[in-house]
Structure formats: C-alpha cells, structure tokens
Design goal:
The protein is of the alpha/beta class. The chain has eight helices and eight strands; from the N terminus they run βαβαβαβαββαβαβαα. It has one domain: TIM Barrel. Helices cover about 35% and strands about 15% of the residues. It starts with a strand and ends with a helix.
C-alpha cells in the first residue's frame, strides 16, 4: 500500500511569488509539486511550459515534480520537460497517436510515466500498457480550469482502476485531480487514490503574508486521510 501524497497544483498559486509559494506548501507537509500544462488546443486554456519547471529547480525545489500534460500532440514536449527537471510525466491517451510510444519516450528520457483519464474517458487504454505505467491520474473535473467541483461518479472509476492495479501486481500510484478538499478526501482515499492534487483548496487558504498559512489545510487533509486507514 502506497503512502499518501499531497500534490499542490501550482495552477492556483501566486505566480508572482511562485518559488516562495511552492516552498511554503512543501514546508507545510505537501509531498510532490503538480504542474498543469495546458496548450489552448487540447484544453481551452494556456498555462506554463518547461521554463517554469526549470526555474523551480534552479530556485532550489528538490521535491518530485509531477507534470500533467494537457497538450496535443505530446511527444514534442516530453523531452523538454524531462530536461527541465520533471519526475513524473503524465498525458491523455487521446492526445497521442501512439500511446505505447509516448510512454516509452517518457521512460527513455529518465522520467516515470503515466496516463490521465478525463471523467468520461473509458479505461480501455489501460488494457495493454500497465507494464509501462508508474502513475494513473483520474480527472474528477473536466480539464481546463481550476476551482471546479468534484464529479462523484469518478469514485467508481477509482475503484475500477484500483482493481486493475491490484491485478497487475505492479506498484502504480493512483492520483486524483479536481475538487479535492478536506470534506471529500477521506471518501476519495477509501475508493483507492493515494495521490491527491489540491489546487484552490490549498493555495486559496489563509492570508498571503502568512508563510505558515498552508499548515492548517495540509493538516486537515492529513487528518482525514489518517481516518481513511483507521
């Protein structure tokens, strides 16, 4: 059973103070930095590229960086993020012409690889590539914007993916992204997730001038996660 990871999504952070924001989130007990990369093509928004990832590494961030590519096509940008310091790179199967090749490209560039499924995307893409996966990310909102509400039927998808992971016998992390907060994280964990992306719930907490403002929200998430395994 994997330990629980909390993954602050920098999409909701203050970009004018990004290094400091990430530092404060990690000091509050977060585990892995989540990057939402959008291209205004696959999704209707435009966010950040490899230079921001590289900048955080140069700033001194040593925690794993989890790059979620919402771009189409994906293969061109994978080596750039690997070079910039990504630890995990995940992408949507419908954004790749050759899913197996894209997964292998991530591996060849020294990163851990994963697939991402939108709420209504079927899971059949997992049928032939479980041996190449280090992470499976389920979107519990439709991708493109932060601050959306959790879609409840994704809990059933979580349970199904957890069964597939167990049957594979492989150590594959199961990540959830969208609308995660202290009120629902225990139920999400009970459905099988072990990695939890928190964007607006985390970076929207407290007063900007307080460097410890994320302690309370991360503490609340941890408290609820502990109850899920009690």
């Amino acid at each position: 059973m994997n330990e629980f990871w909390i993954a602050p999504s920098i999409l909701s952070a203050d970009f004018a103070r990004l290094g400091e924001e990430v530092d404060n989130a990690l000091k509050s007990g977060a585990d892995i930095v989540h990057f939402d990369v959008m291209d205004n093509h696959y999704v209707p928004n435009l966010t950040i590229g490899p230079l921001v990832c590289e900048a955080l590494r140069k700033y001194g961030v040593t925690a794993p960086i989890d790059v979620h590519l919402m771009v189409k096509p994906v293969d061109r940008i994978i080596p750039d993020f690997a070079k910039a310091g990504a630890s995990y790179i995940t992408f949507h199967p419908e954004a790749s012409e050759h899913v197996d090749r894209s997964l292998q490209l991530i591996k060849d560039n020294g990163c851990k690889a994963g697939l991402v499924f939108n709420p209504a995307t079927p899971l059949n893409h997992l049928d032939h590539v479980m041996d190449k996966l280090d992470m499976i990310l389920l979107m519990s909102v439709n991708p493109g914007f932060g601050g959306q509400s959790f879609i409840p039927y994704v809990l059933d998808k979580l349970r199904e993916v957890q069964k597939r992971i167990a049957a594979s016998g492989r150590n594959i992390r199961l990540e959830i992204d969208g609308g995660v907060n202290p009120k629902n994280i225990r139920e999400i964990a009970a459905a099988g997730a072990d990695t939890f992306v928190a964007g607006s719930a985390l970076f929207g907490a407290g007063k900007p001038e307080d460097p410890n403002r994320y302690d309370s929200i991360v503490g609340s998430l941890r408290e609820e996660l502990a109850k899920s395994r009690a």
